[in-house]
Amino acid sequence: MKTITNMKKTITILIGLFLLSLTSCMVSRTGNFNPTTTLNSANFKYVRMVEGESSASSVIGIGDNITDLIARAKLDMYQKYPLKENQTYANVAVDIANVKALVIFETVTVKITADIVEFTK
Predict the structure, then answer these.
(1) Residue from 25, 45, 11, 16 nearest 100 by CA
(2) Global pTM?
(3) How many other CB atoms are found less than 10 A from the CB of residue 94?
(4) CA angle 11, 17, 19 (to 5 degrees)
(5) What are phi and psi of 83, to 5 degrees?
């Protein structure tokens, strides 16, 4: 009888630990910064900082396509902030946030930021 009771307690604890592991949330962030080295203070002026963003969510791997998030974020930035004559994007940074919850839900967000500079000479 004691063995059955201990077995029930062990199974209850294992089920509890399993369910607890499903309620966890994990956030990971990565990034990349590409400074523009061809600029010098004599040939350009700073215009503003701009950004573009894209995200995708999935449940058990089924959902939005995450393979082209960086390209979509870049396109978002280009559409929101089209360049004028003699302008370019400089100092581009890419930040990626990956949020996982309940081991089955995932959201990936990509944000690209850049400076717009205008060449004066």
Answers:
(1) 25
(2) 0.69
(3) 18
(4) 100
(5) -80, 150
Type of residue at 9: K
pLDDT, one tens digit per residue, over 31-86 is: 776 777 666 667 888 899 999 999 998 887 777 777 788 999 999 999 999 999 99
Structure-token match 């839900």, residue found: 105
- φ/ψ of 74, rounded to 5, equals -65, -45
Domain positions in the chain: 25-119
Determine the length of the chain.
Answer: 121
| Token couple for 43 | 């040939």
Q: Which two tokens stand for residue 42?
A: 């004599």
Residue type, 98: N
Provide the token pair at 16: 């509890």
